Amino acid sequence: MPPKDSKLLNDWIPEGGGDFDVIAVGLQESTYKRGKVSENLVGTDSWHASGSKADDSDEDENYTDVPTLDNKSSDVIVKRSRTKKSMRKMTRIVRQLSNNLRDTKGDPLDYPFGKQIYVHLGESYVLAGKVELMEMRLFVYVHERNNVCEVEKTATPTGLGSVIGNKGGLILKCVVDNTSLCFASCHLAAHQDQKFLDKRNSDCATILGSHFGQKNVSIDHQFDHCFWFGDLNYRVDLNYRVDLNYTAHRKRNHEKHCAEVMTLVRAKKWAVLNQNDQLKHQVEGKKALTGWELPSALFPPTFKRVRHTLDEYLLERVPSYCDRILYKSLPGLRSNIKLQHFSCYESIATSDHKPIAAAFHVGRTSPIRSGTVEKSTLVEISDLAGKDLLGLDLAGLSDPYIKFYSTPTKAVQVDTNGSHPSTSTISKTRSPKWRDDQVPKLHVLCDNERDAKAIHLTLVVMDYDAASKDDLMGVASVSLEKFCQSRPRFIPFEVQVVLHGKGAGTITGKIRVTLPGQAAPPAAEEQYIRVAGCHCTLS
């Protein structure tokens, strides 16, 4: 619930926006209205939290409400069901509501908390875009001094049957001063046990696999910088030991588990709590959000708090860092982003979650001049191979080939019908090796070293299927920066293949970049080295 006093927002969101160029706000279970409401709804003070049960219920984990749409606004009103409804009817209602909200177009003033944030930021900030899905909302504001364009957005439900939108992800992409930014505000599956942990990982994969931007390329491989945040619902779990396999070694009952966690909280052992955080285990184990940066939460667990108190916990749930922020950049742009701080704001006590915020300094991405085919940069790949790729056939093998995309898009020349360059298919293997004549030479449409260094190749690994649509096996990104040399030569590379956030093998090889005007060395010069002062040849 938003605070009644807008001054309480100051720490979380600086009044007037501070000196930030972009401010993204993600809200979950956000169904609040001002004023008097229907007697079917439970009100609290001047703000109304629809469908809530004050302090002693976890609406997130005990979802039994049937949503309806208020005809007078785009806000969601949730009424308590007084009769048993069939799941089929509920699914129809929620599907319709999700679709309606996804297509909602309006300004920030059509939702009370949105209006509060809008007024709080002031007239210097413009709402670049918003995405709404049932109780989830994402607002992205950009300061008027900045140029913003190419705004795209989508919503992906991951609730029951991947239809109900009480859980899911909201994605908004925009380009600010030539820097592409992508924001994913998420609300993932709740509860502590393994099957719910697996569902959270599955939710992440579903959201990353949303059809958004380039075909078959997840958001974290096609935009300069991505931010993933919200109520991710991963829990502190002291039943894990911190080792390579992250295997459970002993179980505690709920009361003992809560007591041990609270002992660590009172002692401010934030590092120990973070080491036993499910999300940290999943990221490091390449089971979810592989390659994303997870800042340590050096503050008390944000969930499950007693509303209207500063530091009390409701111990029907294990105190946990459910609310998190992660980020990921393209390989060649990682040095352009710096985390300045990641904090929790205890003074806002109107929810059983404490709000969090992270501030980043992001360097602007330099523009790239579009070149021509006649003056393109040649990219050659040799000794291309895969290792431990996914086996998607019944026999546990695949028929892999690689398609080549790029960031920025259209930097790599495609053929006349728009098809991207691709390798030959290697049959029945998880560790393919391509001959050099099976790998296309790529023409990158730029004619100078500065621009060539800014290009990222996107390797999309596919499984050929003669009888049906080819399956995606994973994606990898390669920055051309280190391959641009004054004297062109083959330089080795190795990259992680990722399928919707999960590790899916590696790709290795060698890359040579030849700019217009540079002459490639003869083949013999690549194969042999002659040592001055002797007549021997090293091969």
Topology, element by element:
Layout lengths: L8 H4 L9 E6 L4 E3 L12 E3 L16 E4 L6 E4 L7 H16 L9 H10 L3 E9 L2 E8 L4 E10 L10 E9 L2 E9 L6 H15 L16 E7 L22 H13 L3 H6 L2 H7 L38 E7 L7 E8 L11 E7 L14 E11 L12 E8 L34 E3 L4 H5 L2 E8 L7 E9 L11 E9 L2 E13 L8 H5 L1 E2 L6 E2 L1
GO molecular function: phosphatidylinositol-4,5-bisphosphate 5-phosphatase activity
Protein name: Phosphatidylinositol-3,4,5-trisphosphate 5-phosphatase
Pfam family, one: C2
How would you briefly describe this protein structure?
The protein is an alpha+beta fold and 539 residues long. 15% of the residues lie in helices and 29% in strands.
Describe what this molecule looks like in 3D.
With 539 residues, this protein is an alpha+beta fold. Among the domains are: 236-326, no CATH class; 377-527, Immunoglobulin-like, CATH 2.60.40. Helix content is 15%, strand content 29%. It has helices at residues 9-12, 87-102, 112-121, 194-208, 254-266, 270-275, 278-284, 449-453, 523-527; strands spanning 22-27, 32-34, 47-49, 66-69, 76-79, 125-133, 136-143, 148-157, 168-176, 179-187, 225-231, 323-329, 337-344, 356-362, 377-387, 400-407, 442-444, 456-463, 471-479, 491-499, 502-514, 529-530, 537-538. Strands 8-9-10-11-12 form a 5-stranded mixed sheet, covered by helices on one side. Strands 17-15-21-20 form a 4-stranded antiparallel sheet, with no helix packed on it. The chain has a 3-stranded antiparallel sheet with strand order 1-7-6. The longest helix has 16 residues, at 87-102. It is globular, with a radius of gyration of 26 Å.
